[in-house]
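ugh ok so i messed up the first submission bc i forgot one of the chains. this is the corrected input, ALL of the components this time, i swear. 732 residues overall. if the numbers dont match what u have on ur side tell me asap before i send this to the collaborators (the ones from the other lab, u know who)
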Amino acid sequence: MKDKAAGRLQSLREKMATDNIDLLVLGPDSHMRWLLGFAPHADERPCVLFVSAASSAFLMPGLNAEDVAAQTDITLHRWGDGDGPSEALKSALYSFGARSPARIAIDETLRADHALLVLEMLPGVDYCYASSVVGALRLKKDSDERHGLTASARVNDGAMQAAFVAVRPGTTEREIAAVVQGYYLDHGAKPGFDIIGSGPNGAYPHHASGNRTIQAGDAIVIDIGGIYQGYPSDMTRMAFVGEPPEDYRQVHAIVDDALQAALAAARPGVKAKTVDAAARRIIEASGYGEYFTTRTGHGLGLDIHEAPYLSPTSETILEPGMVFSIEPGIYMPDRYGVRLEEIVYLTETGPDIFSRLPRDVHQGKA
Amino acid sequence: MKDKAAGRLQSLREKMATDNIDLLVLGPDSHMRWLLGFAPHADERPCVLFVSAASSAFLMPGLNAEDVAAQTDITLHRWGDGDGPSEALKSALYSFGARSPARIAIDETLRADHALLVLEMLPGVDYCYASSVVGALRLKKDSDERHGLTASARVNDGAMQAAFVAVRPGTTEREIAAVVQGYYLDHGAKPGFDIIGSGPNGAYPHHASGNRTIQAGDAIVIDIGGIYQGYPSDMTRMAFVGEPPEDYRQVHAIVDDALQAALAAARPGVKAKTVDAAARRIIEASGYGEYFTTRTGHGLGLDIHEAPYLSPTSETILEPGMVFSIEPGIYMPDRYGVRLEEIVYLTETGPDIFSRLPRDVHQGKA
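and heres the new structure output, hopefully the right one now
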């Protein structure tokens, strides 16, 4: 991992030079994990990595210091619970020399209080977000990342099949979610998230799995993901309790057509918004445009949501090595929702789908 | 929940008036959950609640809007993935009238990019953190919160016993963690966190459960917590594989003495730092002062770490209804760590411990 970290650090510094960034400011989150191969425990204690062209330093809560020192040679500016972080932060910033940075890139996921603690010590500094620097480097996945995401998707395929088995009248959304979470644990993964949206709840794209009891005639959105060896998964399939009526079958087919149109549009050199438009055109042409209320997709890497985003306005040009979701949906308030979601790795010739599961509706016993 | 939300909103506005706060700015996190009884799905999309003396408004990602509208009457300023949040944010801020707020309280846990999006629209505004406003109101728990935390602690007692059973030579830390997580799921809780620190790993207070294999002669820190019906739990006990040697027994006894001294010191009207000092004095007097590298405790409520913090410098005056951890430890690099942790509810007469488990070392078969 240290070799990989050295290579990534070099790429980062080249990018910082190109973008005129004097100092990078990262919290204990995914940007840091990508760069160093680890991130210390994150809590209310400010824990911040600073990287300049020539040097790097950590503002480090004392209780994490020994653990971190075993993993990196970066200088740690330690602070204790009794003293607070101010003096250690000053010494970390001073370690970069007397000249104040003119322009910094700050981790967009940093807690507000930690970010403002740093910004207030650098009055008048110009800032941008680390997403434009580290995030840009994270866009194209290397072979380790591709393998990690593939392995995680494989576990998720199993979790989806476990969810299908659990779908039956009388079961609650939360019980199905617990089956999925148990599957992750049994297979060496950590539960990530679960959206079990049954009946009208499926019309909420971000529904929190709740106490609603599954009934005959329910369409059920099953959008689940775990974390396997550090890599997340994310996939949506549909279940139906009993024989799906014709209107459901039509909507399901439209969403799958939209997904296939987006797959066909996703090629290196194409703008992300073009892929979004390909899916949206199908749904609009079918008369359901007003019910497709989300973007078409998001990137997936160390984060379950990261660049590239496939929205109607995204100018990002797709490149081989990018990994992203394609997940059109039709969300009809008070009725039901249909979403189908694939995660793909973009090759030179087009998208390679991680999941091996078909996108047909899973028909459960009524 | 709407009645409770109305009462809490009124308390909040009284506190805002006292503190001269014109506008409160909350993200979809625990402050919001405490205030409203729910928080929308949190992701990279800005989702912010604004509360003034007379009004309130939400900046709301479109895909969460229907879900939220079903739970609250607060006006939603919606934005879509294609357009971005700027216009909706302006309309939300304008809804509070032409006068700019002079002083705001901003959620310290908000993402940096979301916080700065708001702050840049309010140039020259004076800010403090929501911890001093909402956080202050959350310090004293009501009977629902006490019951919720008690029920969560009860599940955690069972999870700890499951962990004890899993401790045996040849098992990895991560396998013990998976047993604990499985216990939570089987008992209707969600996995929260796990620190299984075996042998020298126990000397890292925030060790991430890893691949180290348990060996005869290991001391093992087991610090675990789940989330049951929205309330977290948190507890640390020690296991030992085989017969603990005399030096371990002594260190364990010192930590337990420190914990008991803190329990005895924790009374309404006492400063938090006095409780910290009571524990620290015992460990220092035993010659292990340099190895007690953390504060003595933290509050627990909707968050696993919240006020009051029991540090050497905390001037917070303890009051009946507060809930906090007491968790002294001795962390000896390259050797082992011993931490014992209770969560207590402070009554008029002193602390009431949630857990029913003894703090003796659990002796596993070698």
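quick check: The CA atoms of residues 231 and 328 of chain A lie 23 Å apart. that seems consistent at least. The longest strand of chain A covers residues 219-228.
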